[in-house]
Amino acid sequence: MRLCSVCSLAEEHPGITLDGEGVCNLCRLDIVGDLLHNFTYTNQVYEEFTRSGPDPHRDHDCLFMYSGGKDSTYMLDKFVNEYGKRVVSYTFDVPFESAHAAQNIRLAQEKIPAKFVLDSDDEGIKSMMREVFNRPAPKKPGKYLDEKLPCVSCRTFFVIRAILYAYRHRIPYIALCADPQQILTMESDAREVVRSFYRTFGERLTDELFRDEIEDVLFAEDDEIPKIVFPFIAMRYDYDPDRIVAELKAKGLYESSPLETHCTLFPLLNYYSFKHWGCMFYKLNAASHQRSTARDRDFDRSTFSIKFPRAANIVDIENRMREVVLQIAAGEGDREQHERELVAVFRELDATEEGARFVARSFLDMRSVAADLGVRL
Ligand SMILES: [Zn+2]
Predict the structure, then answer these.
(1) How close is the Cα of 28 to the center of ligand 1, in Å?
(2) 176 alpha carbon – ligand 1 mean position (Å)
(3) Could you tell me where the DSSP H helices lie in the chain?
(4) For position 305, what pLDDT does the model report?
């Protein structure tokens, strides 16, 4: 198996090709050409949105997808209290998240004068997840982000719920605080988001999950369809999580908790990417970290979602994780030994002893989480 000499991505990784010198297309930035169109359009829509004044024929300027995390709290506050936008704050309660959305939005509701909407569809999103995990093996070589399909599908599911809400209430824009990696692969065109869901899941499941309303969006006039904007586009070069947290704390909008919200499906997400693509779930993030440190060894880069220490041996960590994850999924091996190995791996990924043990235990419970969801391992 050939690995990229800069970032260690394998040649078999979905969407990756290696050239004669053993350097991958991400390191050669070939993919940027494909993504540039998306990026230019995204910038344009965002500028149009920030410039536009309130439309007297509509009650709201935008639907803001609010997760309760620090990034979206920071932006929601700016949209309402600084830019003066008339905002519907839309939160989808993802049943796989450890802390529930209602807890996260309490502080914001006290200090930010927006209309708050809390949406959920536990049955729908679970049946989609069952479908993702229980499908036959995906076709090789696959495309960019295929190893993250369950995670990407979950997000697409609630973005479509938001599109339908905005369409129904004639809200012209949807603001989405995705990180740069997500922004570059997320369609800004709401109709394309819906089409790509159809392509991935087919007509039967799509109609079952979203009923007739989704067809209305597909065939609506362009100006009836909400446009998606990505507020972090404007600040992508100076994204600074520490400064965001400090500002939020000063405004009384953030309480740090010892256990941040996390996805209870994280072990299953790793199982999926190991089983079908031979890589860990965060492989692209790890590779992008390795790429940036290879380019500039003094530059500590923030990858938004996870930190990789400079000394970590990603290839070795991934091999050890693969072995344990696949053993746990198969119901083989020794539980204590699995726990020891996983704790060691997460410690090398900069987790605290307590944090590493917490995540390791969640991996040990993978089989019962899968059984509850109806996922066959
Ligand atoms: Zn590379």
Answers:
(1) 7
(2) 28
(3) 30-51, 70-77, 101-111, 122-134, 149-168, 180-185, 190-210, 213-219, 241-250, 266-277, 283-295, 314-330, 335-348, 353-364, 366-373
(4) 46
Distance 16 CA to ligand 1 centre (A): 8
Å from CA of 334 to ligand 1 middle: 35
pTM of the model: 0.90
Domain spans of the chain, in order of start: 30-250, 266-373
300 falls in which pLDDT band (50, 70, 90)?
very low
Cα 310 to ligand 1 centre (Å): 16
Kindly report, residue by residue over 189-214, the tens digit of the pLDDT.
899 899 989 999 999 999 999 988 99
- Does residue 80 contact residue 112 with C-beta atoms inside 8 Å? yes
> What span, in angstroms and rounded, lies between the C-alpha atoms of 355 and 328?
20
* Separation of CA 26 and ligand 1 centre (Å): 6
Length of the chain: 377
CATH code for residues 30-250:
3.40.50.620
**What's the DSSP call for residue 114?**
S
| 208-264 tens-digit pLDDT | 999 889 999 999 999 999 999 888 776 666 677 788 889 998 998 887 654 456 789
Dist CA 337 CA 334 (whole Å): 5
